[in-house]
Design brief:
The protein is an alpha/beta fold and 332 residues long. 40% of the residues lie in helices and 18% in strands. The chain is built from ten helices and 14 strands.
Length: 332
Amino acid sequence: MEDKMILVLGGAGYIGAHVVKDLFSREYKVITLDDLSKGHRDLLPGGAFIKGDLGDRTLLDEIFSQHDICAVMHFAAYSLVGESVNEPLIYYRNNVAKSVELLGAMAKHEIRYFIFSSSAAVYGEPMNVPIKEDHPCDPTNPYGQTKLTVERILKDCDSAYGLKYVSLRYFNAAGADPSAKLGERHDPETHLIPLVLKVATGEKENIKIFGTDYPTTDGTCVRDYIHVNDLSQAHILSLERLLGGGQSAIYNLGNSRGYSVKEVIEVARKVTGHPIPVIEANRRAGDPAVLIASSERIKKELGWRAKYEDLETIIKTAWNWQKRDAMRDTGR
């Protein structure tokens, strides 16, 4: 695949860096464009790197003019739900307006293949579980609205310009590459598993459970966790679908089973050997009781299968990374 060059936006972030690694393993050429506002240069396994903004039309025109890009992967959205509620215009500007600039540059330079990092947030409160791709979309926050808006723009771009895309609706990405060279590093961190593990490394004193009165087995929220490497494999399969002449598609990505907050904490205690103290707090507004994906469509159409389905395995890989990253931070 020496002649296939992929532009990865946000490739220095958590999921983007894992996808860049897998693209290299399949001998694709990769250019990463990242403004490093959320990403980390040291996470990139190699390839060309350009520091810049996904909405910089002049820069995009320059990249597309100078390089034979065959496809674009977009991981450069802002993704904090609470922040999107407080600062919606920032999210619409970065996630929507800048994506329009990107798609305009792609149309100008006749680049026809696009992989979009979407989210289960497009669904809002689930009417049915597990959630299928034809579930009504009614986002409950601006972040989810921005993802759904871009999906609708992509559909229009397919009709108007022949842009073929795959939109991947993630549920809860988790874990780290088994090498422990790549993993999750957010500032601020909002995801449950790394927050729990930060208690085990001593970076946090305890973990808060927001709500213990949900209509679930133990009263805490239930979520579908998918290992980041399995997520990455889905991106590669989606890319190859498009390069092979496939049509545009939307897929859910999850393990099709859920774990409660308390279950995650118990498994983390087992993996780390740390007591992980808990503080119970009130519910957060907008947190559904249960979010579980149906990933049958991508299994059937692309042959995708999760390799790291077990929660303990997911947490073990995250723990190995967390220990290493904590040592990096302390200089040990």
